[in-house]
């Protein structure tokens, strides 16, 4: 059975999130955590699908794995998505949720991409609590920025 990889929260003011991971099991688990926080979710299992979706919609948050295993045994590099986002001035904040959480990768992400909000290893015992906490903080930040922009635009 093919799994639907689009889900919505019940909150009409919810923000949108794109989950990029090659594992449908991880997508399901990340979706569950993300929806509970209040995001509407869509998912992509490879770069081509992710970029197609990002061309059609401006997501508030991207939750991405750094390495995507492809069906042919090769890997796609998650930094390619970050570079694409940088070039296309998408305003999305990125949470990297990865099984490849090396310090060098984390330093590279924060140093080179100012829109990376958090870098969370999947291997932590509290990985999903950490993800939910990060998304709650990020949601508050986005709402505060939106309110500030509305106030400035109305002056």
SSE order and pairing:
Elements lengths: L5 E2 L8 E5 L3 H14 L2 E5 L2 H10 L4 E4 L2 E3 L5 E3 L1 H9 L5 E6 L4 H10 L3 E6 L5 H28 L1
Parallel strand pairs: 2-3, 2-4, 4-7, 7-8
Antiparallel strand pairs: 1-3, 5-6
Describe the structure in your own words.
This protein is α/β, with parallel strands linked by helices and 155 residues long. The chain has helices at 24-37, 47-56, 79-87, 103-112, 127-154, and strands at 6-7, 16-20, 40-44, 61-64, 67-69, 75-77, 93-98, 116-121. The termini are far apart.
SSE run: EEHEHEEEHEHEH
What does the main sheet amount to?
6 strands, mixed
Radius of gyration: 15 Å
C-alpha termini separation: 53 Å
Low-confidence stretches: 1-12
What is the overall shape? globular
What is the average per-residue confidence, as pLDDT, rounded to a whole number? 85
Judged by helices, strands and strand pairing, the structural class is: alpha/beta
Strand order of the largest sheet: 1-3-2-4-7-8
Tell me roughly what share of residues is in helical segments.
40-55%
Kindly estimate the percentage of residues that lie in beta strands according to DSSP: 15-25%
Instruction: Count helical runs.
Output: 5
Number of strands: 8
Considering the chains and any ligands shown, give keywords for the structure:
disordered N terminus; 8 strands; six-stranded mixed β-sheet
